[in-house]
Amino acid sequence: MGFGPLLNALQLLLTLYGALIAFVLLVLLPVAVLMRLPIKRFARAVAEPVSIAFATTSSEAALPRAMEAMEGIGVPRRIVAFVMPTGYSFNLDGTTLYLSLSAVFVAQAAGVPLTFGQQLLMVFTLMLTSKGVAGVPRASLVILLATVASFNLPAWPVFIILGIDALMDMARTAVNVLGNCLASAVVARWEGEFIDNYVAPADLFTAEAPAAVTAR
Protein backbone atom coordinates (compact mmCIF):
# COMPACT_ATOMS: atom_id res chain seq x y z
CA MET A 1 0.00 0.00 0.00
CA GLY A 2 2.96 2.33 0.62
CA PHE A 3 2.10 5.97 1.13
CA GLY A 4 -1.28 5.61 -0.55
CA PRO A 5 -3.36 5.77 2.67
CA LEU A 6 -1.38 8.80 3.85
CA LEU A 7 -1.99 10.60 0.57
CA ASN A 8 -5.70 9.78 0.75
CA ALA A 9 -5.85 11.03 4.34
CA LEU A 10 -4.12 14.27 3.32
CA GLN A 11 -6.64 14.75 0.50
CA LEU A 12 -9.49 14.24 2.98
CA LEU A 13 -7.93 16.79 5.36
CA LEU A 14 -7.54 19.40 2.60
CA THR A 15 -11.06 18.72 1.34
CA LEU A 16 -12.49 19.29 4.82
CA TYR A 17 -10.61 22.55 5.30
CA GLY A 18 -11.71 23.69 1.85
CA ALA A 19 -15.33 22.77 2.57
CA LEU A 20 -15.29 24.58 5.92
CA ILE A 21 -13.74 27.72 4.42
CA ALA A 22 -16.34 27.64 1.63
CA PHE A 23 -19.10 27.22 4.21
CA VAL A 24 -17.90 30.23 6.19
CA LEU A 25 -17.55 32.45 3.09
CA LEU A 26 -20.65 31.29 1.20
CA VAL A 27 -23.10 30.67 4.06
CA LEU A 28 -22.10 32.32 7.34
CA LEU A 29 -20.74 35.55 5.86
CA PRO A 30 -23.81 36.21 3.65
CA VAL A 31 -26.06 35.55 6.64
CA ALA A 32 -24.12 38.12 8.69
CA VAL A 33 -24.35 40.65 5.86
CA LEU A 34 -28.05 39.97 5.32
CA MET A 35 -28.79 40.52 9.00
CA ARG A 36 -26.78 43.78 8.96
CA LEU A 37 -24.34 42.68 11.65
CA PRO A 38 -21.18 44.72 12.21
CA ILE A 39 -18.77 42.35 10.47
CA LYS A 40 -15.52 43.85 11.78
CA ARG A 41 -16.73 44.06 15.37
CA PHE A 42 -18.10 40.53 15.17
CA ALA A 43 -14.84 39.19 13.71
CA ARG A 44 -12.79 40.83 16.47
CA ALA A 45 -15.14 39.48 19.12
CA VAL A 46 -15.12 35.87 17.94
CA ALA A 47 -11.38 35.73 17.23
CA GLU A 48 -10.47 34.62 20.75
CA PRO A 49 -13.18 31.97 21.35
CA VAL A 50 -12.64 30.53 17.87
CA SER A 51 -8.89 30.40 18.55
CA ILE A 52 -9.51 28.63 21.85
CA ALA A 53 -11.73 26.09 20.13
CA PHE A 54 -9.15 25.56 17.38
CA ALA A 55 -6.28 25.07 19.85
CA THR A 56 -8.10 22.86 22.36
CA THR A 57 -10.39 20.99 19.90
CA SER A 58 -13.09 21.45 22.53
CA SER A 59 -16.06 23.74 22.02
CA GLU A 60 -16.87 23.49 25.72
CA ALA A 61 -13.57 25.18 26.58
CA ALA A 62 -14.51 28.15 24.38
CA LEU A 63 -18.11 28.51 25.62
CA PRO A 64 -17.57 30.99 28.49
CA ARG A 65 -15.41 33.30 26.38
CA ALA A 66 -17.79 33.04 23.43
CA MET A 67 -20.74 34.07 25.61
CA GLU A 68 -18.79 37.04 26.98
CA ALA A 69 -17.75 38.06 23.47
CA MET A 70 -21.33 38.07 22.21
CA GLU A 71 -22.47 40.15 25.16
CA GLY A 72 -19.59 42.50 24.41
CA ILE A 73 -20.88 43.35 20.93
CA GLY A 74 -24.46 44.00 21.98
CA VAL A 75 -26.30 40.67 22.22
CA PRO A 76 -28.48 40.64 25.36
CA ARG A 77 -27.43 38.18 28.02
CA ARG A 78 -30.77 36.34 28.04
CA ILE A 79 -30.43 35.59 24.31
CA VAL A 80 -26.82 34.48 24.66
CA ALA A 81 -27.69 32.26 27.64
CA PHE A 82 -30.38 30.47 25.63
CA VAL A 83 -29.00 30.35 22.08
CA MET A 84 -25.37 29.41 22.76
CA PRO A 85 -25.92 26.30 24.95
CA THR A 86 -28.79 25.17 22.71
CA GLY A 87 -26.64 25.61 19.61
CA TYR A 88 -23.93 23.45 21.16
CA SER A 89 -26.39 20.57 20.91
CA PHE A 90 -28.24 21.34 17.67
CA ASN A 91 -26.13 23.75 15.60
CA LEU A 92 -22.98 21.80 14.77
CA ASP A 93 -22.14 22.93 11.24
CA GLY A 94 -18.50 21.88 11.27
CA THR A 95 -19.23 18.47 12.75
CA THR A 96 -21.94 17.73 10.17
CA LEU A 97 -19.60 18.61 7.28
CA TYR A 98 -16.86 16.49 8.81
CA LEU A 99 -19.10 13.47 9.28
CA SER A 100 -20.49 13.68 5.75
CA LEU A 101 -17.05 13.85 4.13
CA SER A 102 -15.66 11.14 6.39
CA ALA A 103 -18.53 8.76 5.66
CA VAL A 104 -18.03 9.14 1.90
CA PHE A 105 -14.29 8.63 2.43
CA VAL A 106 -14.98 5.37 4.29
CA ALA A 107 -17.14 4.10 1.43
CA GLN A 108 -14.56 5.05 -1.21
CA ALA A 109 -11.67 3.55 0.78
CA ALA A 110 -13.59 0.30 1.15
CA GLY A 111 -14.49 0.26 -2.54
CA VAL A 112 -18.23 0.26 -1.81
CA PRO A 113 -20.19 2.23 -4.43
CA LEU A 114 -22.99 4.39 -3.09
CA THR A 115 -25.88 5.65 -5.18
CA PHE A 116 -26.87 9.30 -4.96
CA GLY A 117 -29.92 8.28 -2.93
CA GLN A 118 -27.77 6.35 -0.47
CA GLN A 119 -25.44 9.32 -0.08
CA LEU A 120 -28.38 11.63 0.63
CA LEU A 121 -29.78 9.17 3.16
CA MET A 122 -26.39 8.96 4.85
CA VAL A 123 -26.11 12.75 5.02
CA PHE A 124 -29.57 13.09 6.58
CA THR A 125 -28.74 10.29 9.02
CA LEU A 126 -25.55 12.05 10.07
CA MET A 127 -27.40 15.34 10.46
CA LEU A 128 -29.71 13.66 12.95
CA THR A 129 -27.17 11.51 14.79
CA SER A 130 -24.74 14.42 15.20
CA LYS A 131 -27.24 16.36 17.31
CA GLY A 132 -26.26 16.34 20.94
CA VAL A 133 -22.74 15.05 20.33
CA ALA A 134 -20.41 15.94 23.19
CA GLY A 135 -18.23 18.99 22.62
CA VAL A 136 -15.04 17.13 23.44
CA PRO A 137 -12.24 15.82 21.20
CA ARG A 138 -12.91 12.63 19.19
CA ALA A 139 -16.60 12.51 20.11
CA SER A 140 -17.58 12.62 16.43
CA LEU A 141 -15.68 9.42 15.72
CA VAL A 142 -18.20 7.50 17.81
CA ILE A 143 -21.03 8.85 15.64
CA LEU A 144 -19.09 8.02 12.49
CA LEU A 145 -18.41 4.43 13.57
CA ALA A 146 -22.06 3.86 14.44
CA THR A 147 -23.27 5.34 11.15
CA VAL A 148 -20.95 3.40 8.84
CA ALA A 149 -21.90 0.21 10.65
CA SER A 150 -25.59 0.91 10.04
CA PHE A 151 -24.86 1.22 6.30
CA ASN A 152 -22.90 -2.06 6.31
CA LEU A 153 -19.59 -0.31 5.65
CA PRO A 154 -16.32 -1.61 7.15
CA ALA A 155 -14.82 0.18 10.14
CA TRP A 156 -11.14 -0.06 9.19
CA PRO A 157 -11.08 3.16 7.08
CA VAL A 158 -12.18 5.05 10.19
CA PHE A 159 -8.83 4.17 11.76
CA ILE A 160 -7.07 5.90 8.85
CA ILE A 161 -9.09 9.00 9.71
CA LEU A 162 -8.05 8.62 13.34
CA GLY A 163 -4.48 9.47 12.34
CA ILE A 164 -5.48 12.96 11.18
CA ASP A 165 -8.57 13.43 13.32
CA ALA A 166 -6.85 15.90 15.65
CA LEU A 167 -6.16 18.26 12.73
CA MET A 168 -9.69 17.82 11.43
CA ASP A 169 -11.15 18.29 14.89
CA MET A 170 -9.45 21.68 15.25
CA ALA A 171 -11.14 23.09 12.16
CA ARG A 172 -14.61 21.64 12.68
CA THR A 173 -14.71 22.74 16.34
CA ALA A 174 -13.70 26.28 15.38
CA VAL A 175 -16.52 26.41 12.81
CA ASN A 176 -18.99 25.05 15.38
CA VAL A 177 -18.14 27.88 17.76
CA LEU A 178 -18.22 30.49 14.98
CA GLY A 179 -21.63 29.27 13.83
CA ASN A 180 -23.08 29.41 17.33
CA CYS A 181 -21.71 32.91 17.94
CA LEU A 182 -23.29 34.06 14.69
CA ALA A 183 -26.58 32.35 15.61
CA SER A 184 -26.84 34.32 18.85
CA ALA A 185 -26.20 37.62 17.04
CA VAL A 186 -28.71 36.74 14.31
CA VAL A 187 -31.42 35.87 16.85
CA ALA A 188 -30.78 39.15 18.67
CA ARG A 189 -31.10 41.11 15.42
CA TRP A 190 -34.18 39.12 14.45
CA GLU A 191 -35.84 39.99 17.74
CA GLY A 192 -34.84 43.64 17.36
CA GLU A 193 -32.68 43.54 20.49
CA PHE A 194 -29.20 43.76 18.99
CA ILE A 195 -27.51 46.93 20.29
CA ASP A 196 -25.45 48.38 17.43
CA ASN A 197 -23.60 51.02 19.46
CA TYR A 198 -23.22 48.93 22.58
CA VAL A 199 -20.15 49.68 24.71
CA ALA A 200 -19.20 46.73 26.89
CA PRO A 201 -18.52 47.37 30.58
CA ALA A 202 -14.86 47.26 31.51
CA ASP A 203 -15.35 44.27 33.82
CA LEU A 204 -16.82 42.15 31.01
CA PHE A 205 -13.42 41.44 29.53
CA THR A 206 -11.06 42.02 32.44
CA ALA A 207 -10.77 39.82 35.48
CA GLU A 208 -9.19 42.62 37.52
CA ALA A 209 -12.13 45.05 37.40
CA PRO A 210 -14.49 43.18 39.78
CA ALA A 211 -11.73 42.89 42.40
CA ALA A 212 -11.04 46.62 42.12
CA VAL A 213 -14.71 47.43 42.62
CA THR A 214 -15.03 45.33 45.75
CA ALA A 215 -11.78 46.56 47.27
CA ARG A 216 -12.20 48.94 50.20
Give a written overview of the molecule.
The chain is mostly helical. The protein has one domain: Proton glutamate symport protein. Helices cover 74% and strands 0% of the residues. It has ten helices and no strands. The chain has helices at 4-34, 39-56, 59-72, 77-90, 93-109, 116-129, 139-150, 156-162, 165-190, 208-214. Helix 1 packs parallel to helix 9 (165-190), helix 3 runs parallel beside helix 9 and helix 5 crosses helix 6 (116-129). The longest helix is centred in the first third of the chain and has 31 residues, at 4-34. It is elongated. The N and C termini lie far apart (71 Å).
Question: Main traits of this protein?
Answer:
elongated, mainly alpha, Proton glutamate symport protein, single chain
Provide a short characterization of the protein structure:
By secondary structure, the chain is an all-alpha fold. Helix content is 74%, strand content 0%. It has one domain (4-214): Sodium:dicarboxylate symporter (Proton glutamate symport protein), CATH 1.10.3860.10.
